[in-house]
Amino acid sequence: MESNSRHLAPTGELTIFEAAEFKGGLLTLFENEGLVSLDLGKVTRVDTSIIQLLWAARKQGRMVVSGISQDLQAKLTQLGFSEPLSE
């Protein structure tokens, strides 16, 4: 998982097994002031636990998300999330 103080770019699968590490990365991002960036372009699989974390992070109101795959967008739509992840 690539990260710096304002950018996180996870790779591979993001499932319940990676949720704790991913949550830690998100928390680190939001310790900083201003806009943060999340690049999901190299994520191959996402499950509901990660979608919950993404939606909780979205509530911070200062996250820009890029690289959302068609599969992830379909899952978000299927679960009833009609608003974009980015602010």
Structure in a nutshell:
This protein is an alpha/beta fold.
Helical stretch count? 3
Residue share in β-strands = 25-35%
Biggest beta sheet attributes: 4 strands, mixed
Low-pLDDT sequence parts: none
Written as H for each helix and E for each strand, in order along the chain, the element string is EEEHEEHEH
Structural class based on helices, strands and sheet pairing: alpha/beta
Q: Please, what is the average pLDDT?
A: 89
Biggest β-sheet: strands ordered side by side in the sheet: 1-2-4-6
Q: What Rg, in angstroms, do the CA atoms define?
A: 12 Å
Describe this structure in words.
The mean pLDDT is 89. The longest helix is centred in the first third of the chain and has 12 residues, at 19-30. The two termini are 23 Å apart. The protein has a four-stranded mixed beta sheet, covered by helices on one side. It has helices at 19-30, 48-58, 70-78, and strands at 2-3, 7-9, 11-14, 36-39, 42-46, 63-66. It is α/β, with parallel strands linked by helices and 87 residues long. It is built from three helices and six strands, in the order βββαββαβα. β1 and β2 form a beta hairpin. Helix content is 37%, strand content 25%.
Question: Layout of SSEs?
Answer:
Blueprint: E1 2-3, E2 7-9, E3 11-14, H1 19-30, E4 36-39, E5 42-46, H2 48-58, E6 63-66, H3 70-78
Parallel strand pairs: 2-4, 3-5, 4-6
Antiparallel strand pairs: 1-2
Keywords:
alpha/beta, 4-stranded mixed beta sheet, globular
